[in-house]
Amino acid sequence: MAKPGTPTPHDDLFRALLSDRQRAGAFLRDHLPNEIAGQLHSDPPEILDGSFIDEALRSTQSDVLLEVKTKSNDPAFVYVLAEHKSTPDIGLPLQLAGYMVEIWKRYAGGRAGKLRALPPIIPIVCYHGSANWTVPDGIASMIAGQGSEALSFLPGERYILRNLSALDVDTLSLDPALKAGFIAMRQEALKHLKALAEGLSGNERLQMQVLEYILRTYPDLDFARLQAELRRARYLELEAKVGTIAETLIAEGEARGEARGKRQGLVEGEARGEARGEARGKRRGLAEGKAISLIQFLERRFGPLPEASKVKIMDASVSELDTWIDGVFDTKSVEALLGDIH
Fold this sequence. Notes:
By secondary structure, this protein is an alpha/beta fold. The protein contains 14 helices and 5 strands. The chain has 2 domains: 9-219; 236-338, no CATH class.
């Protein structure tokens, strides 16, 4: 079994969407070709622990392994690999073949009886990037000299691609929660706000996961517009959660800055033999964390800040930063919040 990797927003959301057996079953019904689905039992799949992704690729890929039964009651696996890069990786078929081999090795555990009867693995690749999918459809397309059958020694011949970016929104899934999650992954939360909100209705945990994903990963998120649209459509519960998550993200930034400052202060104090070095570094780090978080949220609302505004924020005291942070969600402009910039 591969070692568990460091979680990322993409990985967190993808796993959350397929962590429920009913949703995983809906995913298979939505996205397996009929000739394959017709050979599988209709019971929801089992969700198996473990990941098979290389550590170096964990920030750009995530995976889920499902166990299903064929209609003859034999075991089979569905391996779902999510490719999170905005530009697809041409080496993906090789990686996919390696992951499938690892699944079989784990299943067999070196036992001869199981090695002689490996269950089928159905690979599905989910892609939601902005660029067109130009990856070969299997290893056969990557190997020179495939005109000769004598050279066709292939560990894996094909995979199923579901390009989430290219699908019509209505065909993303018949399951409302899955559709909402895929809409978030496509960065179309504002464009399809009704489908997003209604798909998340009644599932508080998934609401928090999807909204945190949106706040963490959307590069040009208009925070004020998101809250305004939620309020206008009377999705008040989601609006409140957006505010709560935003406050948490600000607090995280402050904590990181404080920790950096504390470490810096300890070094200063040790070098100079002065205890006040730690306190000074801690204060500086706390202010830095608050300043960075404030800049990030202002840029999400109003776009890139002028350099003078950034300088004023980075030079501000903790008390000034606290005042600005309290008003960041209500202010009409950067100038109204910060006052004169000299």
